[in-house]
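User: Could you go from structure to sequence for me? I need the amino acid at each position, not a summary. Structure tokens:
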């Protein structure tokens, strides 16, 4: 099963509220039940913030992850999240997918006092 990598965003984004990346297509996406994908990005936080990232208004891939105001939060770091592409075997067959072949959107939001800087957003997924 081949893997593909798609760069969603190279340049740095400042997240103070909501940002949207897309739409983007994954025409060769393997939608077999239970397959996973990986979201990779660089993050730097200034202040006490919570970061949320989700595809297509599905359950968040990064769910309100807290960053404290300490000096370590200002250090740039690489981050990755593994997530199920379509649905798990335990979910009903009509459960909405995280990713689909066409018209995907990545929604990024941050709450709190400060800002979040994100760059180098890549997606690795199973292709057909």
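Assistant: Here is the amino acid at each position, in order:
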């Amino acid at each position: 099963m081949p893997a593909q990598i798609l760069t969603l965003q190279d340049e740095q984004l400042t997240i103070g509220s909501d940002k949207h990346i897309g739409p983007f297509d994954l025409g060769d996406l393997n939608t077999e039940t239970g397959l996973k994908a990986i979201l990779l990005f660089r993050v730097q936080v200034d202040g006490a913030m919570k970061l949320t990232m989700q595809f297509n208004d599905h359950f968040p891939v990064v769910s309100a992850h807290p960053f404290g105001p300490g000096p370590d939060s200002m250090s740039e770091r690489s981050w990755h999240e593994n997530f199920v592409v379509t649905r798990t075997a335990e979910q009903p067959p009509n459960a909405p997918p995280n990713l689909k072949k066409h018209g995907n959107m990545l929604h990024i939001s941050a709450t709190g006092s400060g800002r979040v800087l994100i760059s180098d957003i890549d997606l690795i997924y199973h292709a057909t």
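One structural detail worth keeping in mind: The mean pLDDT is 86.
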